[in-house]
Structure to design on (103 residues):
């Protein structure tokens, strides 16, 4: 939460952390030891975030209109015959994708 509040827009975490006086040790003191007294506000921010969380993929799977956007081709209802799927750990993935590697 501290990073979200203080980093520049699109700034990488490592870049942000290197700019801090004391680097990662300062981050540890602020986040773990609550050196700046921000812990309660961090907790409140996280509670609001978790309470308002929604999974966009779950919402898409539950909405037929949004689900229609995910087709092999826009000009046919036929699936792409060149895409072969396999089941890995209970999930359907394209064949040839190594386990653990996002496709």
């Amino acid at each position: 939460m501290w990073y979200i509040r203080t980093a520049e827009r699109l700034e990488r975490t490592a870049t942000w952390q290197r700019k801090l006086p004391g680097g990662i040790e300062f981050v540890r003191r602020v986040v773990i030891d609550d050196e700046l007294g921000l812990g309660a506000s961090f907790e409140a921010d996280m509670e609001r975030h978790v309470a308002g969380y929604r999974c966009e993929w779950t919402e898409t799977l539950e909405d037929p209109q949004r689900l229609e956007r995910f087709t092999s081709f826009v000009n046919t209802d036929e699936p792409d015959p060149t895409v072969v799927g396999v089941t890995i750990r209970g999930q359907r993935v394209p064949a040839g994708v190594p386990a653990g590697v996002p496709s």
In short: Residues 1-95 form one domain. Residues 33 and 39 are 9 Å apart (CA to CA).
